[in-house]
Amino acid sequence: MGEKMANRESVLPSSGVGRDGVELQLCDVWRRLLGRDDVGIHDDFFSLGGHSLLAIKLTVEVRRLFQVDLTAADLLSAATVAELAEIVRRGTADRQGQLVRIQAGSGASPVYALPPVSGTVLLYPPIARAMGLDQPFWAVQSIGLLPGEEPLTSLEEISEAFIEQLRTVHPEGAEWNLIGYSMGGLLAYETARRLRERGERVGLVGLLDTRITVEPSGDPDFALRALLWRGLKLELDIDWLRSLDPQTRAAELVERAVAAGTMPADFDADRLRRMVDMYQFNLDALAAYRVGPYDGTVTVFRVTDRSMEGGTLPDDLGWGEFASRAVVCDVPGDHFTMVEPGQVETLGRRLREQLGLVAGAAS
């Protein structure tokens, strides 16, 4: 990705669907228990139709997902996803992993989404919904976002770590369906290559407007700008922020983001600093990556609005040079609007269609 594109890498948190992996997974649990298509993180469990029997089922699901035991008092005092997530985070401070279940679904072949440069998975819930609530959908966030984690230094290492994580939930005998937005597509591609080399069945490899090369940004404040504008949705003066010492800057951003509702109330300055650092770690790892051959098919989801690309790029973005076959599937929008409301619905449908075609060819 060129510098212009990299500087606007999407994070897209939403106060409606969750601002981190814990909130995303709790929203999924609530949707299934309450029989609702969508749940906001500030909706009250009991106002949405929750009752004592469903509350018991909720505690069972929380125990299964997070190994945290909730009490009746917990549910009464924390009746929203946002409030309950604070309790869960405290109970899993040393045990949270990279895997986030976006939606349980009912099918046998999950889709696994790999993270963009932000390292987070917050852009994937709308894509999962657009694919249909019956589609099992997992996402994996970058190692280094959670306390005590050291970021990995190469894309190859990152891919191996993701495979190890995904094996813990992958149904035996099922195809591996991998997708990735922008830089996440390179991670999906490398993961597919490694699985295929080991003789495993790989289905959809969906590259969401992913180019074959990544150019490092020349902007020294790239990570801060990306987190500020795309992640925290705050309009602050970069020069003023740069003038603050790191500890004061992080504390200031946390306070403002919590007030704006784009960061959970129990986040701290240390976590925010890790988010900023994650951008640079991932950019460095991806810029050093060299694409290898893949004995299989990739599907390139190519935006129809190419006005911001600054040059003529091949329809398949160059993937036909490395994969045995590259299928191009047009989707509306540009690199950023393709995953936003109004466009993401079409992207989800096309992903579902391509997933069905791959499954049909395999059978």
Question: Can you put this structure into words, describing what you see?
Answer:
The chain has 363 residues and is of the alpha/beta class. Helices cover 43% and strands 12% of the residues. The protein has 13 helices and seven strands. A seven-stranded mixed beta sheet has the order 1-3-2-4-5-6-7, sandwiched between helices. β4, α8 and β5 (202-208) form a beta-alpha-beta unit. α6 packs across α13 (344-362). The two termini are 36 Å apart. The model is unreliable at 1-15 (pLDDT under 50).
Keywords:
3 domains; 13 helices; 7 strands; Non-ribosomal Peptide Synthetase Peptidyl Carrier Protein, Chain A; 363 residues; seven-stranded mixed sheet; alpha/beta; Rossmann fold; disordered N terminus
SSE arrangement:
Blueprint: H1 3-6, H2 21-34, H3 52-66, H4 72-77, H5 81-91, E1 99-103, E2 111-114, H6 124-131, E3 137-140, H7 155-167, E4 176-181, H8 183-197, E5 202-208, H9 222-231, H10 238-243, H11 246-260, H12 269-287, E6 294-303, E7 323-331, H13 344-362
Helix pairs in contact: 2-3, 2-5, 6-13, 7-8, 9-12, 11-12
